[in-house]
Amino acid sequence: MKTRKVAIIGVGHVGAHCAYSIAVQGIADEILLVDHNEQKAKSECQDLRDSIAYCPHRVKISVADFKDLEDVDVIVNSVGKIELLIANNDRLDEMDFTIKAVNGYVEKIKASGFHGVLINISNPCDIVTRQLALGLGLPRGRVFGTGTGLDTSRLLSALNRQTGIDHKSITAYMIGEHGAQQFAPWSCVSFRGMPLDEWAKTDERFQFDREALKKEAIGGGWVTFAGKHCTEYGIATTAARMVHIVLHDEKQIMPASMELCGEYGESGLFAGVPCLIGKDGVEQVIELPLTDAEKAEFHSCCEGIRKNMEHLKDIH
Ligand SMILES: NC(=O)c1ccc[n+]([C@@H]2O[C@H](COP(=O)([O-])OP(=O)(O)OC[C@H]3O[C@@H](n4cnc5c(N)ncnc54)[C@H](O)[C@@H]3O)[C@@H](O)[C@H]2O)c1
């Protein structure tokens, strides 16, 4: 029988929680932990192993190296140095570190013979995902990022608290950059087929301040960060869901950071958009029927990502 194998690169706050989330939900049979801080990897491995006896599913956890990645189905990339964000609360402050880190091991992943799906979390998410995709040279869609997946979860949570409707009965997305340059296309928000605009005509629960909810989705990460100097549960659950979708070939539509090749009139960058995800990673970018104003807003988000990408040429 085939074993479902997942590797986490970078087992800090985020990577360790991803491993835990994947383990307790029984998403994988084997989890490999890769980190240049050997003791950190060993310690997380021990702690995770200590939970298995009381988990509902069996899972094998081990410390591994880049050379062990050949038959891994999904890699989650979560390296970083989170304290770099404390001074300015700006994900770009981690860019020099994460791009250099990825440049330092992307060839090692390639050399291992890895041919699965890689999901990137490391920030700035859209730019690091592109760097990994370019470096690995796998077929399009095999490398994607969590992108606005987490921000969308925050929007769903805010919409749930505002309307009382369960998260899973709401269709809504944050799109654009996993950063300040993202927005919610309200014209595409619906509650199981009932558009938000229709509902808002008669029900005051749906007549809310849309700008305020958007800001909540964008700023929620910094609320979490303020008290613990990291974020863990939301991102770990987002990534674990994506791993589950890939391993079960679910063909679920979820926001992710994906390469745009003409979709939305954009190309040459990765951005958060709804994607159809299955065993081959992102199998299709879903083009939402945006209004003209929303299209313009999306282009301006992409311009922002492009501007941030200019710094890549200064990183050696
Ligand atoms: N995309 C999202 O929605 C989202 C959400 C939360 C955090 N993040 C990002 O995830 C990343 C990880 O966050 P964190 O809080 O776990 O950071 P952290 O500093 O706690 O952990 C980073 C880990 O990466 C390891 N590492 C660093 N360089 C490495 C290398 N070259 N090879 C192997 N391991 C290496 C470190 O030893 C450490 O264990 C950051 O970039 C953070 O900004 C993204």
UniProtKB/TrEMBL annotation:
<protein>
    <submittedName>
        <fullName>L-lactate dehydrogenase</fullName>
    </submittedName>
</protein>
<feature type="domain" description="Lactate/malate dehydrogenase C-terminal">
    <location>
        <begin position="148"/>
        <end position="313"/>
    </location>
</feature>
<comment type="similarity">
    <text>Belongs to the LDH/MDH superfamily. LDH family.</text>
</comment>
<dbReference type="Pfam" id="PF02866">
    <property type="entry name" value="Ldh_1_C"/>
</dbReference>
<dbReference type="Pfam" id="PF00056">
    <property type="entry name" value="Ldh_1_N"/>
</dbReference>
<dbReference type="InterPro" id="IPR001236">
    <property type="entry name" value="Lactate/malate_DH_N"/>
</dbReference>
<dbReference type="InterPro" id="IPR022383">
    <property type="entry name" value="Lactate/malate_DH_C"/>
</dbReference>
<dbReference type="InterPro" id="IPR001557">
    <property type="entry name" value="L-lactate/malate_DH"/>
</dbReference>
<keyword id="KW-0560">Oxidoreductase</keyword>
<feature type="domain" description="Lactate/malate dehydrogenase N-terminal">
    <location>
        <begin position="5"/>
        <end position="145"/>
    </location>
</feature>
<dbReference type="InterPro" id="IPR015955">
    <property type="entry name" value="Lactate_DH/Glyco_Ohase_4_C"/>
</dbReference>
<dbReference type="InterPro" id="IPR036291">
    <property type="entry name" value="NAD(P)-bd_dom_sf"/>
</dbReference>
